[in-house]
Amino acid sequence: FGAPNGLCSSITESKHIKAVKEPWRWSNKHNALGQMLLTNQRLDKLAASRLDFAARGMLVGSVLSRAVATLMIAPEVEGEVDDGEAVDGPTVLAFVQLARTPQRKRARTVMELADEVNVPHLRRLIRYFLFSQLHPNDPRSPEDVPAASCPRHDGRLYVFNSAAATFYAPSDPSGIGGM
Predict the structure, then answer these.
(1) Selected residue with higher pLDDT from 65 and 87
(2) 24 half-sphere exposure, CB direction, 13 A CA radius
(3) What is the pTM of this model?
């Protein structure tokens, strides 16, 4: 008895393990089919991006070796100082998704949180942050703005122990929604 098209059954078994058994194990077993399909879709995207990265030479060496090589090649310009300012260029589409439920028995006010994380000037830092968010076009540094002009936050705080930041690169070849 031969296998169809001259293929042995071990090939189909190995594909079945990769496409069905492993995603099943990785699922939480509740509505597993949708989770398995999503897992396979993500694995396909990862495989496609790996091929693309390999074709571009991005998988040769490490990030550290590439950075060192770039630093060794980069000509030094006398008197040029990088002051860390923002540069002109494309912006990134991104969003942050917090955990669904806040932590219990954690700080609920700015002062309690300052004590908990051992940052005594947290109230001032929050005021600077709020000022920069409310006045993004103000040329002044928030530290240069009088404290009376910075907004206060006296409400309650909620601590979320995890967050997911997602960044989309518009030129990403892996798909229109990014990975």
Answers:
(1) 65
(2) 6
(3) 0.38
**Residue 90 pLDDT class (50, 70, 90 cuts):** very low
- Sign of the CA dihedral running 42, 44, 45, 51: positive
- Distances in Å between the Cα of 97 and the Cα atoms of 94, 169, 175, 178, 179 are 10, 18, 21, 16, 15
Contact between 78 and 65 (Cβ < 8 Å): no
Residue 96 in contact with residue 163, Cβ under 8 Å? Answer: yes
CA 72, 78, 79, 81: dihedral to nearest 10 degrees? -10
CA distances from 48 to 12, 18, 42, 53, 174 (A): 22, 16, 10, 9, 7
Rg (CA), the chain: 26
Q: How many beta carbons lie within 10 A of that of residue 112, not counting itself? A: 14
Q: E strands, 69-160, where?
A: 93-98
Specify the 3-state DSSP secondary structure of 67: helix
- Across 166-175, b (16+ Cβ under 10 Å) vs e yields eeeeeeeeee
